[in-house]
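RECORD TYPE: inverse folding
INPUT: structure tokens
STRUCTURE:
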């Protein structure tokens, strides 16, 4: 090995010995004293080197055999619809180059064929052919003399070079480019099928020396403490790092790589003092978490304060080979117990939407969420698309030419709306999912007696953009004649662009033509559902807007229902778009998130539910009541179902962007238009779905108590169609929060049965740290949390001139497909890493660390519900009693007391002190019922109208405050004190 000192060889061997005993999912990075974070790939990891490709160019890579191995499948280039040689390459980012410093370079590549490549050290993301901002290229000592590519012969090639930097580059990269013919490249660098094996790459700064000291004295040397997104659990005691509510169940998990068969002893400490001692419950190996787990239950601890948990396993100490930090992994992160554990998160979570508006200058004065380690002002920026005009496309095109060669007959103004993912796309499907969730948050709060309009007003911003996406016959000669009032599916760039994450490069150099994808049945139904929902919510707040929403919904309903024979099909195929462009293809077809809609029966049901919930019109009820979908992922779904069952290993989530049955059913649950009989069925289905989720959470092999299952993943990007394995899908965190919502609804439907609230908050425990990596997946919250969600502006990780991500962003979470090049560069392989460990905290890991408006809305919904769950709810919009058995078709008549009639009763014997609702259990629901009966006696008093009212027997049971005769708020307080173990008995 050339240019490698004995000291560096010793460092390499020491790192290898650490890797042999590592408890992480993969070996740690090796530490070097040169300018690079990786040199020889002997540890099976490529990072910080990553491969990249620009569509339609394609390559695959691995690090087998101790080299970075690239196989070229499509070199790209102008004739294939690409650009030039930079369509394929590898690069090492986050380098620092200092003016006047002298550098030595060595690199080797073994090639299966003759060819050529360009290599350069320059400002990260710069097109060095048009912007001479580099310091070295193609082995020349002078930047201006290195324009000729480096010739590569078949077999082994070895190169040495020196240069003195003529400028300082704060964030530099060393890249190799070997794509197709195009600008500055007369021929393909290598033919298809070429294998390149890079190895032994070094960049040494002779001025800085061999040993890293600090960024000031040795600025060019690689900081060995840079973890670059790899997650090393700081503690094996996995807790919700935010905390636990006083009256909720409180569970943690002790997760270890080696099995501890006997129950571990653990103590809960407050301010260093032991307040509780318990024993763990061993459950064995959790395959999704990738550890042996023991459940630590400390539910009886209820005094507000800050706590830690300490397991009697003091030998479990780990030293991070990169940072040098030592973790006592038998001690948990700190957490709170109280009534305000999620304080401040909702405000931050909702500010996400303002910061992702596409047509507004983002102003510092309106930014409420930011990373306190960074300047708030850096998050402010000018609008990305202040004026967004896009060409209407007449068909679904897989890839356009280098210069836009699509349909240019008509264009429309699509200014406004949120960016719905980490690229510049604005999608009706995912946008509608987020709008519904934000509006439903408001509607649920309103049904419980208190609602803030903040989420409603934010949803309006996106909804008004969706109205711009309605086909106007006067402006669209492509679709206007036959599909007026349909809704275009998506607006965005005509082709994916690699702009190195830098916003200014996208805006100034690569701003592409914008296009509007064809109108689809799914987008139309999505808009109808959200507009109809908004119409009833804005009534009384802004009646004109409410009327506008309803008109759009009804006009588009008439338009799409005229095509029912086309979309209500029994032969569901993903290729529908080829014969009917009103069905969208899979997202991978066009290289961005599309959300294919080969079956839209569920979207039609959802839209009908929302229209009926708003208008009560029979035509919508007639449509929804006959709903039956044999193509649902849950098997056969019908009206009033909660779509949850997992068939053939597909997504285990109550709803998502493609499966919307549940959304319609939940709106009917809240509606005053639904009949008592239908409400009874809905309540039963909600609780049955919640019971299924509770069963999963509490199953004997679920170490983290998560309401989610692995799915069978097949045909992921770049994999053969017959390749399958079990794991978590992209967006797994959102599927978990979606399922948590169902348990929240069950809590509401059951009149505050605590088991459902415990299930809902336990799902949030996973999000905030009780998971396979012990990390909080919410930026800024928790001791050890995500920092770098994939975003086109929050790229501090790549360039410190840009901002850190604001607080309160929930990232997408583990994804077993190992899809993006960043996680592949960690050495992860599909099917070989436990599902909950398939994650990297980097802006470059778009498959595991992305953010999206619908995922964020699901997260915000749950935070909002958790914060409000302890408030005494107002009367629920229901007229029937929830049952624990399936509703039958038999009609029964019940006699209820006349609320205006006074009756005389004799004293009733107490059956169970505190059991106000007479379910033979004393729980928070009893205290809530007492408060309801006092606040709203017409509904919840002993002769109230609500079927869940306090009965005379319940009244007798509820009188537990012996200082006062009769029911008072003191009885409710006494029950709460009993639940918190502040009093021993209610007798």
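DESIGNED SEQUENCE:
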């Amino acid at each position: 090995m050339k240019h490698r000192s004995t000291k560096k060889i010793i460092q390499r061997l020491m790192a290898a010995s650490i890797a042999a005993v590592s408890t992480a999912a993969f070996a740690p990075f090796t530490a070097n004293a040169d300018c690079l974070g990786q040199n020889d790939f002997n540890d099976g990891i490529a990072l910080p080197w990553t491969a990249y490709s620009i569509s339609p160019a394609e390559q695959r890579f691995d690090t087998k055999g101790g080299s970075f191995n690239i196989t070229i499948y499509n070199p790209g280039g102008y004739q294939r619809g690409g650009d030039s040689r930079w369509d394929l390459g590898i690069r090492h980012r986050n380098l620092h180059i200092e003016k006047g410093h002298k550098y030595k370079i060595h690199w080797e590549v073994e090639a299966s064929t003759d060819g050529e490549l360009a290599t350069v050290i320059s400002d990260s993301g710069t097109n060095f052919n048009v912007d001479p901002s580099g310091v070295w290229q193609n082995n020349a000592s002078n930047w201006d003399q290195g324009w000729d590519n480096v010739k590569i012969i078949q077999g082994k090639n070895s190169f040495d070079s020196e240069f003195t930097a003529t400028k300082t580059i704060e964030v530099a990269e060393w890249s190799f480019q070997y794509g197709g013919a195009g600008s500055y490249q007369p021929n393909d660098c290598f033919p298809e099928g070429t294998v390149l094996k890079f190895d032994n790459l070094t960049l040494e700064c002779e001025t800085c020396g061999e040993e890293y000291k600090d960024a000031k004295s040795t600025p060019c040397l690689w900081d060995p403490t840079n973890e670059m997104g790899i997650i090393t659990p700081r503690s094996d005691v996995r807790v919700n790092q935010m905390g636990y509510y006083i009256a909720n169940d409180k569970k943690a998990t002790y997760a270890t790589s080696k099995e501890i068969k006997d129950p571990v002893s653990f103590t809960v400490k407050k301010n260093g003092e032991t307040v509780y001692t318990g024993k763990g419950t061993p459950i064995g190996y959790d395959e999704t978490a990738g550890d042996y787990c023991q459940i630590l239950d400390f539910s009886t601890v209820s005094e507000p304060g800050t706590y830690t948990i300490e397991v009697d396993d003091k030998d479990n100490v780990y030293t991070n080979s990169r940072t040098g930090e030592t973790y006592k992994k038998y001690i948990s992160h700190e957490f709170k117990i109280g009534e305000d554990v999620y304080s401040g998160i909702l405000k931050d979570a909702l500010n996400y939407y303002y910061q992702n508006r596409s047509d507004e200058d983002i102003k510092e004065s309106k930014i409420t969420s930011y990373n306190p380690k960074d300047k708030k002002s850096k998050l402010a920026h000018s609008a990305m698309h202040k004026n967004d005009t896009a060409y209407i496309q007449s068909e679904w095109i897989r890839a356009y030419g280098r210069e836009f060669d699509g349909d240019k007959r008509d264009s429309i103004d699509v200014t406004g709306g949120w960016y719905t993912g980490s690229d510049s796309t604005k999608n009706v499907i995912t946008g509608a999912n987020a709008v519904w969730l934000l509006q439903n948050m408001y509607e649920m709060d309103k049904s419980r007696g208190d609602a803030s309009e903040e989420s409603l007003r934010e949803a309006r911003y996106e909804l008004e953009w969706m109205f711009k996406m309605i086909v106007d016959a006067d402006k669209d000669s492509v679709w206007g004649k036959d599909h007026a009032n349909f809704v275009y599916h998506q607006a965005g760039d005509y082709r994916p662009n690699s702009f190195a994450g830098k916003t200014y490069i996208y805006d100034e150099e690569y701003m592409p033509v914008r296009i509007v994808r064809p109108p689809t049945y799914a987008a139309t139904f999505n808009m109808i559902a959200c507009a109809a929902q908004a119409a009833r919510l804005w009534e009384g707040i802004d009646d004109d807007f409410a009327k506008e929403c309803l008109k759009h919904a009804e006009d588009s309903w008439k338009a799409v229902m005229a095509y029912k024979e086309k979309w209500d099909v029994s032969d569901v195929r993903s290729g529908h778009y080829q014969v009917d462009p009103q069905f969208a293809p899979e997202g991978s077809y066009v290289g961005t998130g599309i959300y294919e809609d080969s079956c839209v029966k569920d979207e039609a049901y959802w839209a009908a539910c929302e229209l009926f919930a708003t208008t009560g019109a029979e035509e919508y009820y007639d449509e929804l009541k006959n709903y039956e979908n044999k193509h649902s992922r849950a098997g056969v779904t019908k009206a009033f179902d909660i779509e949850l069952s997992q068939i053939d290993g597909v997504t285990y989530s109550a709803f998502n962007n493609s499966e919307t049955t549940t959304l319609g059913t939940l709106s009917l649950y809240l509606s005053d238009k639904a009949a008592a009989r239908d409400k009874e069925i809905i309540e039963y289905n909600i609780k049955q779905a919640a019971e299924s989720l509770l069963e999963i959470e509490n199953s004997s092999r679920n170490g983290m108590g998560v309401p989610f299952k692995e799915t069978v993943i097949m045909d992921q990007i770049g994999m053969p169609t017959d390749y399958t394995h079990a794991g978590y899908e992209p967006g797994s965190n959102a599927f978990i929060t979606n399922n948590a919502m169902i348990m929240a609804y069950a809590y509401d439907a059951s009149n505050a049965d605590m088991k459902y609230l415990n299930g809902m908050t336990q799902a949030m425990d996973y999000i905030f740290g009780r998971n396979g990596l012990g990390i909080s997946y919410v930026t800024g919250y928790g001791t050890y949390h995500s920092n770098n969600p994939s975003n086109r502006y929050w790229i501090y990780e790549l360039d410190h001139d840009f901002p850190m991500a604001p607080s309160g962003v929930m990232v997408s979470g583990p994804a077993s497909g190992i899809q993006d090049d960043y996680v592949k560069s960690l050495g992860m392989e599909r099917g070989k890493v436990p599902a909950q460990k398939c994650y990297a905290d980097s802006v470059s890991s778009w498959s595991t660390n992305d953010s999206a408006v619908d995922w964020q809305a699901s997260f915000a919904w749950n935070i909002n519900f958790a914060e409000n769950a302890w408030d005494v709810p107002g009367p629920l919009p229901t007229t029937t009693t929830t049952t624990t058995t399936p509703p039958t078709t038999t009609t029964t008549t019940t006699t209820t007391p006349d609320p205006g009639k006074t009756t005389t009763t004799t004293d009733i014997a107490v059956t169970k002190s505190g059991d106000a609702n007479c379910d033979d259990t004393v729980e928070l629901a009893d205290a809530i019922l007492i408060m309801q009966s006092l606040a709203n006696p017409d509904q919840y008093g002993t002769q109230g109208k609500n079927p869940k009212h306090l009965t005379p027997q319940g009244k007798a049971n509820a009188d537990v405050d012996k200082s006062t005769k009769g029911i008072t708020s003191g009885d409710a307080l006494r029950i709460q004190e009993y639940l918190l173990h502040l009093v021993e008995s209610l007798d």
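NOTES: The mean pLDDT is 87.
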